[in-house]
Amino acid sequence: MKIAVYPGSFDPVTNGHLDIIERASKIFDKVIVTVMKNSNKVAMFTVEERMELLRKVTKDLPNVEIDWGTGLLVNYVKKKQAHFIIKGLRAVSDFEYEFQMALVNKKLEPKIETLFLTTSSKYSYLSSSVVKEVASLGGCLKELVPDEIIMDIVRKVREIRETRG
Ligand code: PNS
Description:
Bound molecules: 4'-phosphopantetheine
CATH superfamily: HUPs
Helix content: 40-55%
Strand order of the largest sheet: 3-2-1-4-5
């Protein structure tokens, strides 16, 4: 069985991520979408909330599983008995960092292959940071994230605004 792990922060999942998930789900028997805990990044959504949003948008993809992980990605991938890491590449600017990560992961665990899927050009401008900025400034999220999670993001922005006063 060919199992791939698609790791990321997914804070929150965007249409660009979903495009990669859908395409990967056609290539692999199972795709595990993994929210990696990253203590260096301040997140808008908790890990559980990010997983919930991912579950919502992948509910019609039977071979896609949502999970979370921490620590070294290659250790997580081994634990899941997967042999592939999926990464999305938006632009040349992503390449240098992703290339370095792929080589580090290869050095740490030579049996695990990193495979890159190029993002569809219509999503090449998109990132979770762009989504958070548009949402925080009251802009329209249509076509940036799946429709079914727009209200969750709007609610979260409101919640943050209210707690900050
Ligand atoms: O969506 P992101 O924030 O670009 O995802 C980055 C992520 C989580 C895939 C990356 O930071 C990662 O792989 N973290 C796990 C720690 C690790 O294994 N790092 C590589 C060796 S230094």
